[in-house]
Model the fold of this input.
Amino acid sequence: MLIANMVSVMTWFVRRRPLAMGITSIVGGSGMFIFPYLIAVLREEYGLEGFFLILGGIMLHGCVFGLLLRPSPVTSTDPNPKLTETNDTQNATSSFDVVIFKNWKFDLLLASNFLQALGFFPIMMFVVSRAEEFPGLTPEQAAFLPTVVGMANIGGRLLAMITLDCKAFNKACLMAIMEFIGGTAIALSIFCETYAWQVVFSVAYGIVGGFGMVGLGIVMAELISIDQMAIASGFVTFSIGIAAMSGGPLSGMILDLTNSYTMVFLFFGSILICASALMFLIFVAQRRSPQRKHKN
Done:
């Protein structure tokens, strides 16, 4: 569903693409803090079997709405007429061409996205458990921090919708800045030993995550042509999955070796800062070469 939603929005909207991505992302992100409470209520009211039945029904509604998605009427936005395909079979075959990796800017984006996901996702697993170790924080306060992250995440998506829709800002540069802020916040959070500072960290962490959810697709759309959007989105989502799958065991190994959350947060904060450096290289490359324009 994530790939279909991203590709559909990217191909149908060009002039106000950040606004469209922001709206769809905000609506989807609301589930981050709605579903935990909904799941608790459903399990208590209907039991485990009833809960899974209802949850499966909710997910199947996505298939119904997915059937309403239509392909863009634009077959290609590349100025080279030889690249324009009118045959659907030819388009489907060319969409899986790995020639996209010849675009070194997209390669940088893919590497940055992998590091961003690797540095960002594992931290969420330790937000509550680390907070419980700080003196003066109650279990109830620690348990509320993921809700703060979820609300801030929606705020980050709203911020991305507003700033990325402004032509005065370079989108890759904004992404690099936000990733650097996120990495710095994760690394410095080892000094946040009070509840107030833990809330500040959770807000920064959530905003950066929400901003990245919207900004990734916007930056990607500036680096590739529309007819490459589907395969590019697939590779990007695949890299996120690999990072998410690797981050958990890696963070657990670091925690076992050091027996401290400090090294975990310092390591993954540094990874996120490295991701921002790669994104900044994309910004520099865009400044040195004319940016490709896409017309819907």
Q: What stands out?
A: Confidence is low (pLDDT under 50) at residues 75-94, 291-296. The longest helix spans residues 31-66. The two ends are 23 Å apart (CA to CA).
